[in-house]
Amino acid sequence: TRNLILVLGDQLTPALSSLRQGAPDKDRVLMVEVMEEATYVRHHKKKIAFLFSAMRHFADELRGNGWTVDYVKIDDEGNRGSFREEVSRACERLTPERLVVTEPGEWRVLEDMRAWENDLAIRLDLLTDTRFFCSTDRFRAWADGRKQLRMEMFYREMRKKTGLLMDGGKPEGGKWNYDAENRKPAAQDLFMPEPKRFAPDAITKEVLKLVEERFPEHFGTLEPFWFAVTRSQAEEAFDSFLNDALADFGTYQDAMLAGERFLYHSVISAYLNAGLLDARTLCRKVEQAYQDGRAPLNAVEGYIRQVLGWREYVRGIYWLKMPDYVEENALGASRDLPEFYWTGKTRMRCLSEAVNQTIEEAYAHHIQRLMVTGNFALLAGVEPQQVHEWYLMVYADAYEWVELPNVLGMSQFADGGLLASKPYMSGGNYINKMSDYCGNCHFDVKAKTGDGACPFNALYWDFLARNASTLKGNLRLNQAYATWQRMGGDKQDAYRKSAAEFLNLLDTGQDV
Ligand code: FAD
Ligand code: DLZ
Ligand code: SF4
């Protein structure tokens, strides 16, 4: 063998840089299912099943393109259980001239790979991951010398660079951002779009059996399993989003409804992050839908901002700030993650909805992640590293490069404001405005303190009071702190007492 090309579980595209530079008649592909990757956190069962099935289907796709693929299954005899050990075993078997890999998505894996040349005595070529619009070097250059990093500035540059939604040198429609139109609550609707579902084929069925046998202790329910596991299925899923939901994506982007797990979201992040979908193609198709008059500007701009803006931005931050980033804890939060994050058993309706659908689907949409599970952990002062581990484990789309900045930075403010200019937090008000959860909740969203009051209300003020020394200087919190001051001692005391009582229930493991 000339080159051995290692393709990781989230690199499932023939357009991968390592495959592009290779030749099917001279080189060989290695793909490995390994316990280390399946268990470095106890991933949701659906996430493991999705990746193993998608990997197996991708190996077949490559074989169809003429590649020779050495595919090691998790229960193959001799499987040594880690990337490093499996690469080593393959090198013994095949004695390749070089090992070629497209850079991995996690620092942990990259660090290990960098030692392989030496430890495994093999030449290693690490190639840039060209699936992203912005390389890590380019992001570094953009960030270099800036006093403050803000997604919006990065996004504008990316719009100009790609020409997406540009009208000459100007943004389409005259504005860069139409978010002001994207904050409407949704109503229950008989014609709510649904993500495209796929029945498991023989390969998926075998994987489902294996996951149930090998990973019974992992988070989440495995079946029903309906994810796309091939490129063509994933494309079908995205096309059905384009037809059925994109037009309302913007307007209801921040809405939440009981029992409606997907609303107008595209539900493709797991496919995109694993390589089954391509970010450039998605953005072009969405732009085309606008040009054809099939979706309004607020929807397509909103969508493109998520993929071209946020997704690329958080990746840039990750590689800029790792490895120290994962340790950050700007607010010194130290509480343990409450038990109900694992079980969904809580009388707080918003949280039970978000966690239960996470258990069943390995999915929750952005506002649930940010303003329900994230907001609660932030207000309750949960240690950011525990929150990070939970998110990495429970969502089918979670890889550290995208999960960590979203959780630690955007949601928990643990980087002290690098990613977000102020903490994303709210009392029950906001959740009540954007959802229909509160109507059927044990707690009263209008009640501020005392038994039966929505816990978010007291926790909100307690959070501000508790963190005043760190947060008071933040201009965007001026108004909140002014309100807190005006409240006067008695009201302040009532809030803090209510919060203390609630946090005590959490700490003593009592039902909330
Ligand atoms: P849609 O709402 O339809 O959005 C379209 C696409 O835009 C998504 O598929 C995704 O690729 C991209 N996108 C949107 N928002 C973001 C964002 N903030 N960062 C990066 N990409 C974004 N996304 C992940 O892919 N993996 C994660 O592990 C992850 N963890 C998150 C944790 C927290 C606390 C928060 C607040 C957000 C997280 N996100 C994560 C971002 C976002 O919530 C998901 O991408 C989105 O919910 C996926 O569902 P969807 O495909 O229906 O997205
Ligand atoms: C998430 C995951 C899991 C569960 N299993 C595997 C695996 O067995 N083999 C593999 O190649 N990749 C897997 N992955 C994805 C990797 O964790 C991912 O490629 C690295 O974290 C780098 O992003
Ligand atoms: Fe959540 Fe409070 Fe509304 Fe209950 S009342 S659903 S706890 S925001």
TrEMBL record:
* Pfam families, sorted: DPRP
Full protein name: Deoxyribodipyrimidine photolyase-related protein
Q: Which organism is it from?
A: Roseibium denhamense
Starting at the broadest rank, the lineage of the source organism is: Bacteria, Pseudomonadati, Pseudomonadota, Alphaproteobacteria, Hyphomicrobiales
